[in-house]
Sequence to fold (322 residues):
Amino acid sequence: MTKNVLITGVTGQDGAYLAKFLLKKGYNVFGTYNGSPKSDFWRLDYLGIRKKIQLLPLDMTNQKSIKKILVKSDPKEVYNFAAQSLVGHSFQIPIYTNEITGFGVLRILETIKEYNKKIKFYQASSSEMFGLEKSLIKNESTPFDPISPYAVAKLHGYYLVRLYRNAFGMFAANGILFNHESPLRGLEFVTRKITNSVARIKLGLQKNLVLGNLSVKRDWGYAPDYVEGVWQMMQQKKPDDFVLATNETHSVEEFAKEACKIADVPYSVVKSSKTNFRPFDIETQKGDYSKARKKLGWKPKTTFKEIVKIMVEEDIQRLNTS
Fold:
């Protein structure tokens, strides 16, 4: 019998890649979008799966809307990627960010508890929750010290998952994912801003790339690798929380230099402007995926240089064919 699965935020990077992965495994995939006339399905079209998914509009601020979706899809597994996911933007719209990214998790969990407690639930948590915590490497036992409205909202959701797991015996798991990139990243994220801009410079469509803080370091992985780890979390006998990372860090400057090298453009096109700095920022983020390796058998497959190469070459191809 085909297993129904529900992915909230299926139009985003992770939701789209997970949908493709689950379709290949024979799942019947339901996916939600925010219901806006401006909803963008380009990622699903890019992957060639839009017509293979049953798309449903969802209002994460409305519990009746969530109940309607659950009844319609009757899923065995729910993967929650719906969020206001821009860290910088969260400083401008903190209330809305917590309504979707924090309280949205509560609404889903409460609705699942009332509808069918046997449904497995995955919450997309974030490495941003660690914030200014001073450990050089973060794992599942590292304390949290969030420094953005986005991170606080994600932490709200994280603890709600643990509460419903412990208090009500629900299968609810947190995936604490460090940065994971791909050609499906939005242009508002620094990695895709770099690769798209470098591609445009290569083709003579712009002259410079203006970034913010070039010295910040991130643990960058490849999104298709990470959604496999997410699925593996949901196949365990008992729910748990897992960090997915690469155990490596690279600076924004390194990413930009590698992108320029691949595109064969001079690094001198890259500029830094204080206006692009965040109000608060984390200087270095590095994760430890040892627990995922041990319990899930998961590890990242794609190297840093391979990720940059995939993204730059794809952006050049997009611009050449547009």
